[in-house]
Amino acid sequence: MIAADAFLDAAKARGFDFYTGVPCSFLTPLINRVIGDRATGYVGAASEGEAVAIAAGAWLAGRGPVVMCQNSGLGNTINPLTSLNWPFRIPALLIVTWRGQPGLKDEPQHELMGRITATLLDTAEVPHRAFPTADKDIGPALDGAVAAMAERKLPFAFIMEKDAVAEVALEQTAPTVRPRGHMLDLRRGGAPVTRIAALERILAVLPEAAAVIATTGKCGRELFTLADRPQHLYQVGSMGGASAMGLGVALNVRRPVVVLDGDGAALMKLGNLATIGAQAPDNLVHVVLDNGVHDSTGGQATVSATVDFAAVAVACGYARAVACDDLAELEQALRTALEAAGPHLVHLRIAPGSLAKLGRPTVTPAEVAHRFREFLQSDQGVLSG
Question: Please, what are the domains in the chain?
Answer without folding.
Answer: 4-160 (3.40.50.970), 182-376 (3.40.50.970)
